[in-house]
Amino acid sequence: MPQLDALRAIAVLAVLYSHYLPEPRWFLGIYWGEAGVRLFFVLSGFLITKLLASARSRVEEGTHTRAQALGHFYARRALRLVPAYYAVLAVAAAIGIAPVRETLLWHLGYLSNTYFVRHGGWDGPVSHLWSLAVEEQFYLGWSLIIVLAASRRRILWIVAAILSGPLFRLVCLALRWPQIVSWVMTPGSLDALGLGALLAWRTRQGTRFESRGPFLGAAAACGLLGWIALQKWGTKGAWAGINEVLGTTVLSVFFVWLIGRAARGFGGFAGRLLESRPLLYLGKISYGVYLIHNFAVPLLDVLFAKLRIRSFVPVPALAVPTTIGLAALSWRFLERPCNRLKARFD
Questions:
Q1: What is the torsional sign of CA 26, 29, 34, 39?
Q2: Fewer beta carbons within 10 Å, N or C terminal of the chain?
């Protein structure tokens, strides 16, 4: 499914666009970084559920025990994610990027989202790590459900996950909790992750999108347009509450359709775009790009200060090639060699 790599590239470009450009320059005045993160979540729910369903099949066939299936899954996830994550944190702490050293234990334990809730807000260059914490926490819990729970109840767990996202955000709104709680805590993202899981479950059941193409396409279009409308005009009164509770859910509906179509393969111009080499490569290194991008500006600031030079180009403009270059090095010398070790756990 090569076009899924291109979707990763689009997701990380949306994040870079919003984080490196000032708000007045955002297209339609919308924070597109949210869309990028939600696309990552739906993709993760889809791909991780497919992997876990395959692991569960091996258990049912008797080739693996449940403990072996879970152990192999955790080992493969750790090899893919942990080395680069810890390496970036180590470098950021070593060169003195604040507040990495002061908060390091939270991030090493993949508890960044909990830290931001306790802190009461974002905290500079480490702020983006909340989404990586959410994904790790999802992997741990969801793997137990898919591998250990009865197969006939799997769809019930998926539906429960989807519903728990807006329900959690509604509770946060009703209790007047700070908005960051519903944003960064794992239950608030379970609708996006669960919708991806639903897509994986339906495709594994043999459901084809061709027979329902017009209906799904219309639902996807409504999801995207509904989210855009809520971002533009749903900022006051009752609409603000609707946006907070349901905004990411309707956006995730669009991404379910997009991922389902990309998994089969878009044709025409869209297919050629999603299979272009630059986009596919950016998707391949997208984890490193996302991991590094928030550290790029303070890294350049430290570098220029130590060398006592003044840049005639805005630092955020330099941050884009710096981020992509460092991510390419991370992929070449760290992530790809670790990925090859995953074959030991096939």
A1: negative
A2: C
> Which pTM does this prediction carry?
0.95
The answer to whether 251 and 31 are in contact (CB under 8 A) is: no
The string of DSSP letters for 197-228 reads HHHHHHHHTT--SGGGHHHHHHHHHHHHHHHH
- 173: enclosing H helix or E strand: helix 154-174
d(CA 317, CA 332): 24
Q: What is the DSSP string of 105-118?
A: HHHHTT-HHHHHHH
CA dist., res. 56 & res. 43, Å (int):
20
Give the pair of three-digit tokens for residue 108. Answer: 């090493």
Expressed as residue numbers, the domain containing 64 is: 3-345
In 3D, which of 49, 28, 39 has the Cα closest to residue 248? 39
Rounded CA separation 220/31 (Å): 20
Q: Please give the mean pLDDT across all residues of the chain.
A: 92
Domain count within the chain: 1
pLDDT 10s digits, 17-66: 999 998 888 998 999 999 999 999 999 999 999 999 999 999 989 898 99
Query: What are the distances in angstroms from CA 11 to CA 154, 213, 230, 255, 282?
Result: 28, 24, 20, 11, 10
Distance between CA atoms of 109 and 162, rounded to whole angstroms?
A: 26
**Percentages (nearest 5) of helix, strand, coil residues in the chain:** 85, 0, 15
How far is the C-alpha of 251 from the C-alpha of 188, rounded, in Å? 14
Taking CA atoms, 175 is separated from 132, 172, 179, 248, 271, in Å, by 26, 5, 11, 20, 46
Cα 28 to chain center, whole Å? 23
What's the mean pLDDT in 135-163?
94
Angle between helical axes of 237-264 and 32-61 (0-180°, round to 10) = 50
- Which residues have C-beta within 8 Å of that of residue 204, sequence separation ≥ 6? 50, 53
Cα 135 from Cα 189, distance rounded (Å): 9
